[in-house]
From TrEMBL:
Organism listed in the record: Carassius auratus (Goldfish)
Listed SUPFAM superfamilies: TPR-like
Xref: InterPro entries: TPR-like_helical_dom_sf, TPR_rpt
UniProt-annotated stretches for the region Disordered: 557-579
Alphabetized UniProt keyword annotations: TPR repeat
TPR repeat extents: 63-96, 104-137, 344-377
Gene from which the chain derives: LOC113079505
UniProt cross-references to Pfam families, sorted A to Z: TPR_1, TPR_16
Name under which the protein is recorded: Tetratricopeptide repeat protein 16 isoform X1
PANTHER family: TETRATRICOPEPTIDE REPEAT PROTEIN 16 (PTHR45153:SF1)
C-alpha cells in the first residue's frame, strides 16, 4: 500500500535541509583545507595550522587534514603535535604503511633535537618509539645506542648489540662495537676476543687493529712490571701485574708460563698446573702462526713450560708428602715422570713416598732406577742403605738369616759409617754360623760406637777367655779399624763433592735468560721429599728408639730372685666314701744308676 502523496512530500522537505547543511560544512572544510595548503606553499605555517585545525573541526574524519597539519607542525618543530596528528592518521587508515613510517621519522627528529640539547633520556624515549615503528631500520637503533652510551648504561648497550648479533648474524663492525663496550665496562678479556673475531672477519679493520694494539701495549707494560716485582721478591704484587697483562692479552703463552711459575713459588700448585698447561696449548696455537725464529722461540717456550710443569708436580707432591698424603704424592710424581723420565730426583721422591707407605719393593725399584740414572748421587746411596737395612730386618724376622745378611751387606756398601748395619749383620752371621765374619762386624760396631753394650756379650762369647780390651787392642782389630776408616773417609769425600755441585733452573723470558730468585739466591731443579740431613736424622732417631726399647726391656725385666711358691696348689681329689688317707712317701735318690 503506497503512502499518501502528502506524506512523501513532507519527508522530502525534512531531508533536504540536512543534506544541504552537510554540503555546506564540506565546502567550508575544503575551503579551509585549500587555504591551509596555500599557506604551506607560502611558508606561513602558523596560518596553515589554523586553517587545517578549522577544517578538522568541521570534518574530523578526514585523514588528509591531520596529515597536512602534522606537516605544518613539523615545519614549526612542534614534534609532539605532529606525532599526535600522525597517530590520528594511523588510527583512521591503519592499512596505510606510509603514516607509521612518517611518524617514526617524526620521533627520530624529536629524539635528535633532545640529544643535541643534552636531554638523553627524552631522546632515548623518542628513538625507542621510532625503532619500534620501524624495527628493520638500523639508524634508529644506533641512535638509541648513542643515548644509552651518553647515559653510561653500557650494560643495556651490550644487551642491545648482543641481540643484533643474534638476529643479523656476525659482522666485523658489530664485534668492534661490542669490543668497545666491553672496554668501557673494563671487561678486557671479552674485549680482546671480540677484536680478534672482528679481525678474522675483516683483517684490515682499522678500528679493531688500533684498539687491539693499545691493549697489547698495556699487557706488555704490565708483564714487565710483574718481572721487576718478581725479581725483587714481591711475588704477590707480581701476580697482580701479570693478571692485568693476561686480562689485556689472554692468548699470550709467555704470560701464562710466568704466572704459573709465580703460583708455584706461592705454593698454589693447582692454579700453577692450569696456567702451565695453558702455556703449552697457547705456545703451539697462539695468536699468530709461528715462522722462522718465532717457531724456534715457541719450541723453547713449550720446553720451558714442560719443565716448569714437572717442577710443579714435584713440589705439589712434596707438599702432599709433608702432610702425610703419600698416595696423592705418588700420583703427582707419576704425572711428572710421564713428562720427564730422565730426572732421577722424581724417582727418588716417589721412592720416598713408597717407603712411607711401607711398599719396600716399589721403593727399592725407584731408588735403583735413580741410581742407574745418577750413580754418583750420595742421596740415593743413603736411601738404598736404609731400604736394604729395612728389608734385611724383615728377612731376619722371617728367619731368612742368609738373605738378611746379604741385605745388611748391601746397606753397608752404600753407607759404611752406620754401626747399626754392622750390628744387624753380626746377629745374622751368628745365626748362619759365620763366626769369623760375626767377630769382625762386632769389632766394627765397637769402633763406630764404643759405648754400644749390646754387642759386647756376643763378641765375648765369640772369643771366650779374652777381655774386651785385649780384643780391641789386637792387630786384627787395628787392621779392621784402618780399613773401616778408609771406607768412611771415601764416602764422606764423595758426599762433599756432590753437595758442592749446585743445579740451577732458569726461566727464559722473551729470548733472555731470566730467573725468579729464591730467598737463598738459587732455585733447585728438583726438590727432594727427604734431604740427606733428614735421612741421617731418621737413622739416628731409629737408633735411639731401638736403644730405648732395649733399655726398657732390661730395666723392666722381672727379678731373678723369687720367694713365692714354685708350684700352684693342687686341689684335693674327690675320694670315694670310706676310702682311707694314705701318707705321702718321699722318693729316695741314691745316685746315678740307682733305683728309687
Amino acid at each position: 500500500m503506497n503512502p499518501p502523496a502528502d506524506c512523501a512530500e513532507t519527508s522530502a522537505l525534512k531531508k533536504k535541509p540536512d543534506m544541504y547543511g552537510e554540503r555546506i560544512i564540506k565546502e567550508k572544510a575544503e575551503k579551509h583545507y585549500e587555504a591551509g595548503v596555500d599557506a604551506m606553499s607560502q611558508s606561513h605555517f602558523n596560518k596553515a595550522v589554523s586553517c587545517f585545525s578549522k577544517a578538522i573541526l568541521l570534518q574530523s574524519h578526514q585523514t588528509e587534514f591531520y596529515v597536512q597539519r602534522a606537516e605544518a607542525y613539523l615545519q614549526l618543530c612542534d614534534f609532539q603535535s605532529a606525532a599526535l596528528d600522525y597517530k590520528h592518521a594511523c588510527g583512521l587508515e591503519p592499512q596505510t604503511e606510509a603514516y607509521p613510517q612518517r611518524l617514526a621519522f617524526v620521533y627520530y627528529l624529536q629524539g635528535q633535537c633532545c640529544f643535541d640539547l643534552g636531554k638523553f633520556l627524552e631522546a632515548l624515549e623518542s628513538f625507542t618509539k621510532a625503532a619500534e615503528l620501524k624495527p628493520s631500520f638500523r639508524p634508529y637503533h644506533m641512535r638509541s645506542l648513542a643515548c644509552l652510551t651518553a647515559l653510561g648504561r653500557y650494560s643495556d648497550c651490550l644487551q642491545l648489540v648482543n641481540n643484533w648479533l643474534k638476529m643479523d648474524g656476525q659482522s666485523a663492525d658489530l664485534f668492534t662495537l661490542r669490543a668497545r663496550l666491553h672496554h668501557q665496562l673494563s671487561q678486557m678479556t671479552l674485549c680482546y676476543h671480540d677484536l680478534r673475531s672482528a679481525l678474522r672477519l675483516k683483517p684490515c679493520c682499522p678500528e679493531a687493529q688500533a684498539l687491539l694494539k693499545r691493549m697489547k701495549d698495556v699487557a706488555k707494560d704490565s708483564h714487565q712490571a710483574a718481572v721487576n716485582k718478581a725479581l725483587k721478591g714481591e711475588l704477590s704484587d707480581a701476580l697482580g701485574k701479570i693478571n692485568t697483562a693476561l686480562e689485556y692479552n689472554p692468548n699470550k703463552a709467555q704470560y701464562y708460563l710466568f704466572r704459573g711459575i709465580l703460583y708455584r713459588r706461592l705454593k698454589d700448585f693447582t692454579a700453577a698446573i692450569e696456567d702451565l698447561v695453558l702455556s703449552v696449548e697457547f705456545g703451539g696455537a697462539g695468536e699468530d702462526p709461528p715462522h722462522g725464529d718465532m717457531r724456534d722461540r715457541s719450541l723453547d717456550l713449550e720446553e720451558d713450560a714442560q719443565t716448569q710443569l714437572v717442577l710443579t708436580y714435584n713440589d705439589f707432591a712434596i707438599q702432599c708428602f709433608s702432610r702425610g698424603l703419600y698416595g696423592e704424592g705418588i700420583m703427582l710424581l707419576n704425572k711428572a715422570i710421564e713428562k720427564d723420565r730422565n730426572a732421577s730426583e722424581l724417582f727418588i721422591n716417589r721412592g720416598d713416598c713408597f717407603f712411607k707407605q711401607c711398599e719396600w719393593t716399589f721403593a727399592l725399584a725407584d731408588y735403583e732406577q735413580a741410581e742407574e740414572m745418577d750413580p754418583d748421587n750420595t742421596a740415593i746411596w743413603l736411601r738404598l742403605a736404609i731400604i736394604h737395612n729395612t728389608l734385611g730386618l724383615h728377612c731376619y724376622k722371617d728367619k731368612k738369616y742368609q738373605d738378611a745378611a746379604d741385605k745388611f751387606s748391601a746397606a753397608i756398601r752404600y753407607n759404611p759409617g752406620v754401626g747399626q748395619y754392622y750390628e744387624n749383620r753380626t746377629k745374622a752371621y751368628s745365626k748362619v754360623a759365620k763366626m769369623e765374619e760375626a767377630k769382625m762386624d762386632a769389632i766394627r760396631v765397637l769402633i763406630l760406637e764404643p759405648t754400644n753394650d749390646q754387642v759386647v756379650p756376643l763378641l765375648l762369647s765369640l772369643l771366650p777367655g779374652c777381655s774386651l780390651t785385649d780384643i780391641m787392642s789386637c792387630a786384627t782389630a787395628q787392621s779392621v779399624k784402618t780399613q773401616l776408616m778408609a771406607k768412611i773417609q771415601a764416602f764422606k769425600l764423595a758426599v762433599s763433592k756432590v753437595s758442592s755441585t749446585g743445579r740451577m733452573a732458569l726461566v727464559k723470558e722473551e729470548g733472555q735468560s731470566q730467573k725468579l730468585q729464591a730467598e737463598d739466591g738459587s732455585e733447585q731443579l728438583m726438590k727432594p721429599c727427604i734431604t740427606s740431613g733428614e735421612v741421617q736424622c731418621e737413622l739416628v732417631k731409629r737408633k735411639q728408639q731401638l736403644n730405648q726399647a732395649v733399655k726398657r726391656a732390661l730395666q723392666q725385666r722381672p727379678p731373678l730372685r723369687y720367694d713365692g711358691p714354685r708350684l700352684a696348689p693342687v686341689p684335693p681329689a674327690h675320694e670315694e666314701p670310706g676310702a682311707q688317707e694314705r701318707p705321702y712317701v718321699w722318693r729316695k735318690f741314691g745316685g746315678f744308676g740307682l733305683n728309687c
